[in-house]
Amino acid sequence: MKKVSCLSTRYRIAQLSASALALVFCLAASASAQSEEEMDILRMIYKDQDLVTPGRSPKPISQVAENVTVVSAEEIEAINAHTLADVLYHVTGVQMDIRGGPGIAANALIQGSDPRHVQVMIDGVSLNNIFSNFADIAAIPVQEIERVEIIKGPASSAWGSALGGIINIITKSPDPDRLFGGLASASIGERNTGDYRAELTGTSGGLGYYFYGGGLTGDGLTPNMPANQGDLYTKMTWEATPKTRLQFSLAYSNGTRGDGRDPLADLKFSDNFEYFFSTLSLNYTFSDSLGLDVSGRVSKRRNGQYVNTQTSGELLDRKMSDELNAGGSVKLAWRSGMQSVLAGFDYDNGAVDSNAIKDGRQTQVRWALYANGTLSSWDFSVTPGLRYDHTSTNGDFVSPSIGLTYTLFEKTIFRGYVARGFNIPPLGLTFGDGFSFVANPWLRVESDWSYSLGAETSVLKFLWLKATGFLHDVSDVITSQQIQIATQTSPPVFTAVNSDRQRRLGVETEIKTVPVYGASLAAGYTYLEVTDRQTGQRIKNFPTYTVDVGVDYNNDALFRGALRGHYIWWNADATQNASYKAMIWDLNLSRKVIERDNHVVELFLTAHNLFNGAQYLTGVFPNPRRWFEGGVRCRF
């Protein structure tokens, strides 16, 4: 009876989502708009970023039921970040498995999710490869980023395969107010660590341009962790008519790096990569309230992973992967006042050529229909969503969601959100072929039901507070299972199976102060329990709690500073040889030495791991100890 009741409840939730969405279409035009004051709620923290895109269409913070964090380009620059991994390291609710210095591969978990459950998007292109669902966040340079929106929890009703959440990168657009401007910067640190960047931007008539080029180098801050990478990015916009806008973007990255070593086994690991993507989109505005977006995209990824002996350098294993993906989207958006409706279609066709996959080549076709909207009346907003996904490899899935926001006292927002999320199994597990691995073409998508309840307020004069509780019930979790008993002549053989059911339960809290005499404080705390829903046992190697603290100081006449502290308790199994007793502190300082008209020269210095602490999940990947870097940044 209990199981039937649970299924019935879930069915009712799905019905409610679909019904509410239909209600939006029917009543949105007649519903009364909220006061303009709602657009100003929480501007103390969000400032000009009050429009965010969790449902793939901009909406004010007061209508967002999901748990969202926004990181701006100014915040990224304040901590002298090199890659996206550095940015996510200090986001409450995101746990980072950092495995080396700048450019070294890293994993991002959102509220304890598996890294493959986190979808990373840039310019509408997924950066997750379809072979392993891995997004190489350490290979994404930050200079081209305008802001990052992190949606914590399932985002499948809008984005598809995103059981853990979305990291949505919004890139810089051409500067509409200048014909020619830009930036050049260079930094150098210990072990020949260097970061070199340049960007140009401007607009002439209806044509806008943005160009970025950069490189990241280093001999490695930990053993066998060198990194060398080059990046190019461009975005072009053309206002063809007052109602028609075209946009083109292109990005290219390549690099080589070490992936650590295992001295006891006399092994060292390395990889190389080459990434490319390009987009072309058309935006047509029918009226002030109705707009159409049509876009196409293509991406290519080439990866090589190598295992060598540490002493002699003999190559023991090499895995190569070559991916080509092409797709497109159509999106129709309607907005009137505080009401909105969005409907869209996504299509993607991908192929993987690899010596680690069955028959050397596998393909995957995906398409989806989705719709979501916002119905606002007085102080309430209802945000339903519904999406249907089809995959050629792992079947179909329906993802409903519904959210509610309530604005109280003009500066306090309550949020509730219920969603069903899913994640498509990687092709490497469905069709993987290796010495000790057997493919499982019958893998099902991993899915969950997620619930969150939160509030944030700036009702106190100098404080912003936010708290969110969450519960994720995950089913059909993919794990590795041994299918052959090891003997001296026959090594163990494994396969991937849908065998586990997990519950991820926790809470996030954040606090920030407004600047007082140029100084502001911030702190974040995340508590997480991951348990086996069948046995009730806690599962190891998931972070139990994470603490982030920060102090910012900004005085143009003196200097700008940012002190960040980060601590994570990994609850690691003893076999991991983990170490995480210390909080890691980074100090970032910068000072303008020349400021004339639009020309600014700024010097900066960063002391990483100021107190030389150890914090890592596995002994194979110790964190870098204390190191320093400094440089110069020139704007014109």
Quick description:
The protein is mainly beta and 636 residues long. It has six helices and 34 strands. The chain has a 22-stranded antiparallel β-barrel.
Keywords:
five-stranded mixed beta sheet; Maltoporin, Chain A; disordered N terminus; 636 residues; 6 helices; mainly beta
Report on this model:
The protein is mainly beta and 636 residues long. It has one domain: Maltoporin, Chain A, CATH 2.40.170.20. It has six helices and 34 strands. The strands form five sheets. The protein has a 22-stranded antiparallel barrel. The chain has a five-stranded mixed beta sheet with strand order 3-8-9-6-7. It has a two-stranded antiparallel ribbon with strand order 1-2. The N and C termini lie far apart (69 Å). The N terminus is likely disordered.
Fill in the CATH topology.
Maltoporin, Chain A
Instruction: List segments where confidence is low: pLDDT < 50 over at least 5 consecutive residues.
Output: 1-49
Number of helices: 6
The CATH level-2 architecture is identified as: Beta Barrel
* Relevant CATH superfamily: TonB-dependent receptor, beta-barrel domain
What number of structural domains do the residues give? 1
SSE order and pairing:
Elements: H1 2-27, H2 43-46, E1 51-52, E2 59-60, E3 67-72, H3 73-78, H4 84-88, E4 94-98, E5 106-110, E6 118-122, E7 125-126, E8 145-152, H5 156-159, E9 165-171, E10 181-189, E11 194-204, E12 207-218, E13 227-241, E14 244-262, E15 267-285, E16 290-309, E17 315-336, E18 339-354, E19 361-377, E20 380-391, E21 395-408, E22 412-423, H6 427-430, E23 437-438, E24 446-457, E25 463-484, E26 493-513, E27 519-532, E28 545-554, E29 560-569, E30 579-580, E31 584-596, E32 599-608, E33 615-616, E34 627-635
Parallel strand pairs: 6-9, 23-26
Antiparallel strand pairs: 1-2, 3-8, 4-5, 6-7, 8-9, 10-11, 10-34, 11-12, 12-13, 13-14, 14-15, 15-16, 16-17, 17-18, 18-19, 19-20, 20-21, 21-22, 22-24, 24-25, 25-26, 26-27, 27-28, 28-29, 29-31, 30-33, 31-32, 32-34
